[in-house]
User: Fold this.
Amino acid sequence: MLSEAPNPERKPFGKQPDRAEKLAGMVATGVSSFRVALMLKAKGAWGRNVVAGVSDYVQSTRVAWDFLLFEDFRGSITGIDAWSGDGIIADFDDPEFERLFSRSKRPIVAVGGSYERSTDYPTGTPYVATDNFALVAAAYDHLVEMGLTHFAFYSQPPAPTNRWAQQREAAFCKICLRDGIAPLLFEGHFNDGLDWDSILRELIDWLAGLPKPIGVIAVTDARARQVLQACIMAKIAVPEEVALVGIDDDHLLRMLSRIPISSVRQGTREMGRIAAEMMHRRLIGDRAEQSPVLVPPKGLNALASSRHQPTYDPYIMRARHYIRQFAAQGVKVAQVAAYVGVSRATLDIHFRKAFGWTVHDDMLAFRLERAKQMLSDRTLSFAEIAARSGFTSLPYMYAVFRRELGCTPTEFQATLPAATMIETA
Assistant:
């Protein structure tokens, strides 16, 4: 059972059982029953995935837990000591949480980011961490596979509440130094305090001064969207000049991006499962793992923003910059040629020389890839997918699928797991 917050008018029925009574009850019934608070950022994809992993564990075992999940947990942490529950799973990336809960008499399991130094982990508290080094390494390795030799990292200004961002920045520097490459860093500003135009102007200046082509790793998908917006404003071709990878693989942010952003998928759901298992062991009196458990990423979702194909032809880079933004809106080849400033025949010559196909073929390949991605969302009709992918009609999308993939959209969709707003198991 999931409750939003404690009801101040709800009275306990009689005396609350102590730990010994609960253990005796578990022995008699074979079923665990506990109340556990989830102090996580449940409004974001990271926290929702951890919560989903906790749910996975509970549903796979003979455990009956009543979960307390605050809508605004930061305003409630000072009163958590008065709560009569049994255990807490908390986000220790927030130093205030670590300070408060490290003194708690209840069993605590912490989740958060990994640290390079073992001394930075909380002592005496089981800790489940997303492997920050592995997240950055996955993005870096992907960009290397795309043939890039220059790399940059868009981070965040250091703050007590973003220690995970500082660890990812440090991981990038370590990887670059290992490979004999000078790390190119930009921390920018937080979104509050400066107006958005100033933030973008500084970001554009940094991107313009980078060697090209270059692979840029953003510390989060939100920061990756900033890079993409700056590139579009500055007419910097993505991915021909800047190949971009974020971290989080946030479905919502992908939908808000004009060019689909590649991203590393964190193993946050697995983190939730491990944290719930640790909590269960502590609640029944077993010794939980004390050394940090690092959870590697679940993979990298490679989309248009990082699929770099080496080319130094300015016509192709300008054409593809336009195609990546507007092909899904049904633009014609003539409009692409007009944007580049040459005839369609001239542009086709450049594409055939570089790739062996025409501008129309390039646009069609982009639309097909977009449709393939959208087919994992079962909430969209095929007609909607055809329209949002830039196909002129549903029958035309069917014809392209049959010709290029040898199957219908229905048959292709049957091979895909359903996309959700949280990480799938």
Q: What stands out?
A: The chain has three domains: 2-130+268-296, 132-266+301-306, 314-413.
